[in-house]
Each structure stands twice: as C-alpha cells, then as structure tokens.
Amino acid sequence: MLGQISLFPYDFAPSGWKICDGSKLPTSEYIDLYNLLEGDVDNIELPDLRNMAPPNCHYCIKVAGDFPFGSYQGVAGETF
Questions:
Q1: How many CB atoms lie within 10 A of CB 43?
Q2: Pairing with 43, which of 7, 24, 36, 75 sits 20 to 30 Å away (CA)?
Q3: What is the pLDDT of residue 11?
Q4: In whole angstroms, what separates CA 43 from the centre of its chain?
Q5: pLDDT tens digits for range 2-49
Q6: Beta-strand (E) ranges in 1-80?
Q7: What is the C-alpha separation between 65 and 60, in angstroms, rounded?
Q8: Buried/exposed code over 8-40 (b: 16+ C-beta within 10 A; e: otherwise)
Q9: What is the DSSP string of 26-61?
C-alpha cells in the first residue's frame, strides 16, 4: 500500500520502497505519494527515521503501489 512505512532487516530498500532517510524525491515522478505526504512543488521530502531503527535495519516507505484510500480527488479536480 502506497505510503506504508515498514522496518526491514536489510542494508537496502526492496523494490518499490525507499529508505526513510530524509532524502527528496521529484514530485513529478511520485505524484500519488505527493498527494499523501505533500511537500513543495518540486520535491517530496521522505521522513527521516534513521535514528529510530535498530542496528542493521532500516525503515522504508512504499513509493509504488495502490493509493491507500481508494480514488483521490486532486487539487485540479483530477481523480487518481
């Protein structure tokens, strides 16, 4: 489910996930995630949960997949 945050015991993010390290993603490539997290017009800032994860683990956020609450009515009236 898009936007889900999970703890993984890996040094990498699985396919469709990004490590919650405060990095920025381009809004144009992650428009559905932008609708959940918001951010500025150009970038979405991922949560930074590095200090909360146990050793050798990472919190990751699902950046690809289904929108969690069904369709979404966008700002300009488009439906996702």
A1: 15
A2: 7
A3: 87
A4: 12
A5: 999 999 998 899 999 999 999 999 999 998 888 888 767 899 999 999
A6: 5-8, 17-19, 24-26, 43-45, 58-62
A7: 14
A8: eeeeebeeebbbbeeeebebeebebbbbebeee
A9: EGGG-HHHHHHH---SSEEEPPB-GGGSPTT-EEEE
Q: How many residues does the chain have?
A: 80
- pTM across the whole model: 0.77
Q: How far is 5 from 25, CA to CA, in rounded Å?
A: 16
State both tokens at 46: 């991922």
- Under 8 Å between Cβ of 11 and 58: yes
Burial environment of residue 59 by CB neighbours within 10 A (0 to 12, 13 to 18, 19 or more): buried
Q: Which two tokens stand for residue 76?
A: 């300009």
User: Which amino acid does the sequence have at 51?
Assistant: N
